[in-house]
From TrEMBL:
InterPro entries: LptM_cons. The keyword tRNA processing does not apply. NCBIfam families: SS_mature_LptM. This is Lipoprotein. Keywords: Cell outer membrane, Lipoprotein, Membrane, Palmitate, Signal. It is found in: Cell outer membrane. Its main location: membrane. Residues 32-89 are annotated as: Disordered. Coiled coil: none annotated. It comes from the Bacteria. It is a lipid-anchor.
Length: 89
């Protein structure tokens, strides 16, 4: 008996894409690095940047920058959408 349990190129592509998605899914954890359990850290060590200084700096990664500014255009009338009855709006 000859069995055909070999993966096709599309099967390998699915496996490679799945593994790479899982591997990259854990990347980008936001926050400082974790210290080892044996590290001695002075309690209350604060970074030199304060919240107000960081909020004043323009940046692509700062969603609060410019939030005090007035909106650029007035809000328009609400237009109906196909899913409004389902969404309860």
């Amino acid at each position: 008996m000859i069995s055909k349990n070999r993966l096709t190129p599309s099967g390998w592509a699915i496996i490679v894409l799945g593994v790479s998605a899982l591997a990259l899914g854990g990347c980008g954890r936001k926050g400082p690095l974790d210290l080892p359990p044996t590290a001695n850290v002075a309690p209350g060590a604060a970074p030199s940047d304060t919240e107000s200084e960081r909020a004043a700096q323009p940046s692509v990664f700062n969603p609060t920058y410019g939030s005090e500014a007035a909106p650029a255009a007035p809000r328009g009338n609400k237009r109906p959408f196909l899913l409004d009855p389902l969404l309860g709006n």
